[in-house]
Amino acid sequence: MPDFLVNAVKDVPEANPSDVLFRLTAALLLGAIVAWIYRRTRNSAEISSSFPVTLVLLCILIAMVTQVIGSNIARAFSLVGALSIVRFRTVVRDTQDTAYVIFAVAVGMAMGAKDLWVGAIGVGVVGIAAYLMMARARVFSAAQPAYVLEVRVGLGHDLDQLLGKTIDAHFQDRELVAMGTARQGAALDVRYEGRLKNGGAPDVLVAALNKIEGVQGVELRRRGFDND
After folding, report:
1. Are residues 168 and 217 part of one domain?
2. By the 8 A CB rule, do 24 and 64 touch?
3. What is the Cα–Cα distance from 95 to 77, expressed in whole angstroms?
4. What is the count of structural domains for the chain?
C-alpha cells in the first residue's frame, strides 16, 4: 500500500460519539441560520427551492469532513483527491449565492474544528452585513434610475430652446455629456444624462420629444445598459 494511504489511516484517534453528535448538531443549527439569512436577504423570485437546503447540508458535511481530516495532512490530500471526482451540473447564477456557499463551508469547518464561537460570531457578523447590504440596495432601488437620452436634431436649431423645456418637464436634472455630427454633418447627435421625476414614464418623454419639429430621432435607455 502506498505510504500516503498508510499515513492517512494510521494513528487515528477514536472519535467520541457524544462530541461528534454535538458538533454535527451545532453545524445543523448554524446551517439553518445561514439558510434563514439567505432567504431573508435575497429576492424570493431568485431563490431556488433546493439552495437553502443545500446550505444546511453543506454545513453538516463540511463539519464531518473537518473531523475526518483533523490535523492529518496526508488524509487531507487524500480527501481532496476523492472529492475532486464530484461534478455539479447546476451553475451558481449569482455571485452572492457563491458567497453564501463559502459562508456555509466556513461555518461547517468551524463546527468540525470545535471552534463554536468562531462559527456563532461569524454567523452573527455576516448576517448583520447581509441585512445592511440589503437595506442599502433597497434604498438605491427606490430612487429613480439614471437614464441616457440621445436626441438627433437638424442643424440650425438652438438645442436649449428646442429641447430644454420638454426635457426639464420630465427629468429631475440633466447634464449634457456628449455632442457630435451625424448624417455627414446635416444633423447633431446630443446625449444627456439624468433621472426622471418621480412618477415619470420613459415612453411619455420619448413621445413628447418626437412631436417636436426638428427632432429626427430619440433614444432613451438606462445608464449601464448602453453598448458603448
Report:
1. yes
2. yes
3. 28
4. 2
